[in-house]
Amino acid sequence: MTKRLALVAAAVACWSTVAGATSLGLPQGLPDIYSQFIYVDYVYDGGSSSGTLTATGTARQVDLPPTSDIWGGLSSFALSVRVSDTGAVLGGADEDLKIEGHLDLNGDMVVDPGEPVGTLLTGRVTQFGFPEGTPQQIQANPLEFVFAVTGGQMADLYGGIGSVGAVTLWQSGFGGSLTSSFNNALIPGYAFGIGVSDTYAVVPEPITALVAVPIGLLFRLAQRRFRAPHA
Fold it and tell me: Is 146 in a helix, a strand, or coil?
């Protein structure tokens, strides 16, 4: 087996990776867009027994594998969803989730022909999950959002329009209740957060996920050098 084929085989082996303890128990697949410096703001409205959660930050990397950076002044992660105080998703829009930037496949920090740039992925949030238990358990686990893919230049890599993806959002500031407002500001009063997230394809069967990804792109990315995974 050539080195290139070995790297593609490694991609297949990684496809069924499952994240740590989560509220919804979602099988984590690839691609996986990593975002950081996410400011989470949940505003509760007691009159309607519901709240609106927004999360905004910087899209940083994509794991296929290998890992490619996301650059550009438009590099961003944005999520907005309205939920009841029991966690039910209320309403929904085609851009509840929107990730933008330049997917730098060869690491030269230049937009080359064929590299995705602009809106990379959009989705409609359909389900929300949150941790329960002791304060330590709540802090150690993420908020989760299931979404239906609605568009973006990476939509086909996530299985196409209508396919299922998920976001795990860590260090959100969530304290265990949706009946009070919260945020994760690093400095009180400033909209700069400490959250990090993974936006990944939900793939029950590894083989099904592989079919959804263009084989040519897997071979192309297999030629790129590996980078150290994010923390």
Answer: strand
